[in-house]
Amino acid sequence: MGGDNPQWEWQRTKMEMKMQDICRPNIHSNAERWNSFSYRNIALLPQPCRRGINFASFGFPEVDEDITFWIGSAQAHTPCHYDTYGCNIVVQVFGRKSWTLLPPDAKLTSVRIPYEESSVYCKENFYSPASYSQFTKVENDVYQVILEPGMALVVPPRWWHYVETLEPALNFNTWLSLETDVDSLISECITKLMVQDLCDEVAENVKNRIINPNEELLTTTTSIDKSYSILNYLLNQKRTKKQQRTDLKRYSCHYLASDAFSRLVDECGSFVSPVKKLNQTDFYHFIAGNHARYDSSLNGGNYSGLTADETEQAIRLRNLVNVCCKPDVVKSIETTLLDEYSE
Ligand SMILES: O=C(O)CCC(=O)C(=O)O
Ligand SMILES: [Fe+2]
Prior knowledge:
Radius of gyration: 21 Å
Number of helices: 9
Strand order of the largest sheet: 6-7-3-10-5-8-12
Oligomer: single chain
CATH superfamily of the largest domain: Jelly Rolls
Bound molecules: 2-oxoglutaric acid, fe (ii) ion
Helix content: 25-40%
Strand content: 15-25%
């Protein structure tokens, strides 16, 4: 069950449990709960479990460490967002997971709160929507696929995705580095500096509602100075059109032309297929089904436990960060810095 806002990460409870219990969330209680142990690097897995995990069969033999795993019980989900870096390859190993995808220009409302470097969330709640009205602007832009064991999904850069586990499931993924990530580094750096400055001297319990739990904000003057030097370095490189010196292999980012894609599907149709677009009626039924989880008594959870003053401060801060850190606002700050502030 959920209220009208997406279930953000700070609302989760951290607990220690055996791997076998992660997938049986209600075994010790009747409470409705889902568990997830996700978005973690495979280095956390015991060595024998890591054997054979790499992306060589996809043509990327160099990818054998930068791999993330996701384990969850039914209903474990990640609110709709896009990743600011890379092109994602997802491999489903166990159980099924539903992926709902929308193109980068879909009319969703981007928010930077909760703040997490590399993820831009949207305000619309796919898990327990209060109503369908928030989705009318995107109802013709929705793609959906259910990943089953043995399937892989390529998520194109900056596509929005809402992902929900349908039954106990395990998958791995990697984000291939792209040449365009260098631009994202600049905008993510500007965003981080603004969030840091706006959150400076804000009490910890208010900050917890703004910053994602796994995100470390720089707080000391020296670390903030360091971020400014990184930003200046990146801006200067862009001004002088210098290539970033890096050991990292970056791939160019091109969509296949539609005839090349058709040829690929013709030739490899038994194992390659495009993700299907949902028709409006099916999308409506998907949202209506998820609406059954909506519980208005859970509304307002974003500020529960805060005093009236703290709530007001958190709302003000959230609105300010969301406005200042809109991707197009950040882009325009970057352009201004490049044009008017070169040394
Ligand atoms: O599996 C999930 O819950 C989210 C996955 C995701 O966001 C990603 O792979 O980029
Ligand atoms: Fe993602």
